[in-house]
Amino acid sequence: MEVKRKLAERPLYQPISGPFHVDYAPDEHTVLAENPPRFTWMAAQQEDENAYLLQVSVGPSFEEEETMTFAPLPYNFFTPDRVFEPGEYYWRYALLVDQPVQQDSEAKADAVLGKQQEMSVWSEVRRFTVPAGLPETPLPSRAQRYVATDTSHPRLWLGESGLRALADGIASDATYCGWDVFMEKSVEPWANREMISEPMPYPENKRVAPLWRQMYIDCQETLYAIRHLSIAGRVLRDERLLGAAKTWLLHVAAWDTEGTTSRDYNDEAAFRVAAALAWGYDWLHDELTSDEQEVVRRSLLRRTEQVAQHVMVRSKIHHVPYDSHAVRSLSSVLVPCCMALLHEEQQAAEWLDYAIDYYACLYSPWGGSDGGWAEGPMYWTTGMAYVTEAMNLLRNYAGIDFFRRPFFQRTGDFPLYVYPPDARRASFGDQSTLGDPVNLKTGYLVRQLAGVTGNRWYQWYFERVRQSDPGTEGAFYNYGWWDFNFDDLVYRHDYPQVEEESPVDIEPLKWFRDVGWVAMHHRMDDPDEHVMLLLKSSRYGSISHSHADQNSFTLHAFGEPLAADTGYYIAHGSSFHREWRRQTRSKNNLLIGGTGQYAENNKVLNMAATGQIEEAYWRDGDGYVRAVATDAYASTVPHVKRVIREIHFLQSSYFVIVDHIDLEKPDSVQWLFHALHPLQLKGQSFRLNGNKAGLEGTFVYASSGELSLSQTDQFAEVDPKEYEGLERHYHLSAETRPASSHRIVTLLVPYKIEEPKYVPYFIDDQDHGIHLYFTDNGVTKKIEVSKTY
Hints:
The protein is α+β, with helices and mostly antiparallel strands. It is found in: Cell envelope.
């Protein structure tokens, strides 16, 4: 359709995209992973009464008969409702002036565009290519999304027919889908329990970590009480349970929406209270009087509004998508709460549309089509716990299946490779479970993805985690966040059982290009034989829950962490968190002149302190990765020129690490290694003997001369009171002499504790390079390192 406009066209502001913002995409460099393409651009102005117009054409002249027009669009991101034919396309956008976006506005797009409409000039035209064979993931338009959805209650998880079918199944078999366990452990304990009081303010309204945690755990318990009693009461038609559920619901609905459980006071508490009201309102809707419905609906609407206001207006995650809590609140609050209020409150559809559009286009800001998660496996767990629940709710109610997107099809690979079932202290990022086995919830989530994809390795992962992490259901990092009995009930009802299969043929080297993580494995299927090295060098720098750890590695072998992620999780923001866990000094990495990468709280510098995996491959039985972390040191070590780390995994047996550091002026380098057991230092080598495994480390070559080795069991700069009574960890520093260029070659040989191992080596330096030869089991490997002059 030809777009009619006034003669006086407005200019269009097209700012340059920065590292925090969404980019202009797609363009000629974009490799699409799904069809249709997702469109994003920098906002032309603050959102108000204006909207956007998007055109896509097969030619750069945008002839009417070969052009698709989408309008009015409320935000700077969009997913079409149709699949594109393979081929080359062009796209542009403009700003529509004084064009409010109503819920049914896309159905009126022709009317909007057919009238004379003031609009800006067109944006720059960008070209992209749609290849054949991509997964097809169109998104229903806003006008069509909810046309066939039920207006009755419940609608969270099950509708009326699903409720009846569940009741029939339980009537025939009390153990159906784990119902008996759910009733015993997750319903009956709340039926007679005294109500939890509304949380009190912090002393002098200053956040105290233990009180903050207790507050959100109390609110999580109110969610358990209301959700589980409501579901059980409706399914069983049990007046005792229904009465208890109503009492809990009306009690919580009376809490002050602007008080201690408001979003701005304690967002974790607010998320849980909002979800509790949503489940209670939805499942008890027909049990409530009209006055009771109004009381609950008013509280639920206000709490949902608080979150929507923060996400859409203040945080603006469609402009800057790196607010971890705001992104999570789409799934933990906006999806369930807006679904419960849909067809009753107009704003609910607007907010739900935003969440759905975000999931279709911008999710996940922490990764890409490889399925990686830049914040690490613990925050993958937290994020995915809520988002998979939201995806299931949307699929069951509105028929929108986001699990078909490439990210969700592949993201189970991330914990599988970087957080395998037998590993401890072997990953990166903030981890509330640090030192414990792989989190039980991670296993449950990977099982969810097994149900989605049919991947038998994922089911194997779940079974191994469930075996290795029993009895942690009550730990704060589980109990304060999710109920496994409810999870099990929902999954067994919604998905078929998948047979497990050991990952015997797993890729020995897995590169998550989207987040800059590389995992190398040998025999993941057998913990007694498993050797794993993980390296990170990420474009996300030290933003959010990531650390100053570009080019860091961990090594786990034969059932034990060797090059470990040391320290303890005390609380986010504690001195242990600020001064140790986030700092390069706590990593198996390098300091330059005693200084690490940027790890403080300036997000501009966090996002600039990046790394990059330049190359990673597995070839002829050997693994190799090359990573660059120069930018990570740029703001803290101004004289840095180049920092490169190469890691060779040879014969699936031993590792050779080659570090290249070039500086504008002479300085020392500290090569760091961290372990859970004391290290035996001797000359240019160190030995670690653990309970199951050991490691021999040798500094084979250092261009500036012999290194000075030292060891400590102190956590530098950390308040000793925070780790009083906890086991000590051990920290090696191997320091060079000052020089402008450094080459350090380190040999790491892991072994079973009862089978010590030695890899002999020799050096040939007769020409302009350093030629190193390593021999194991009669096979010799050569590595070349350039000399420094």
